[in-house]
Design brief:
There is one protein chain. The termini are far apart. The chain has 3 helices and no strands. Helix 1 crosses helix 2. The radius of gyration is 23 Å and the shape is elongated. By secondary structure, the chain is mainly alpha-helical. The protein has one domain.
């Protein structure tokens, strides 16, 4: 995997916190930034995939009607009393 350099601005407090975390894990700042970016990208890909799946289900008519939802919530409220 090839690597490239990017730069961005952040406040001093955030940078200092990042550096302290990196030191406590015996890693460098770049490692933690890459780890954070990987986690962010994974969550975003997961989120987008689930939205696409939900839209496909909607297109196929696979959804709960508003009336069914009302009935379900009414039943749940009745059980909680």
């Amino acid at each position: 995997m090839s690597k490239s350099t990017i730069t961005f601005r952040t406040d001093t407090e955030r940078r200092d916190t990042l550096d302290a975390l990196a030191a406590s894990r015996q890693r460098n700042r770049s490692f933690l930034i890459n780890e954070a970016i990987d986690n962010y990208l994974e969550i975003q890909k997961w989120h987008i995939e689930h939205i696409k799946q939900a839209l496909a289900e909607l297109d196929r008519g696979e959804f709960v009607s508003q009336e069914d939802m009302r009935e379900t919530f009414a039943e749940l409220r009745a059980r909680c009393k």
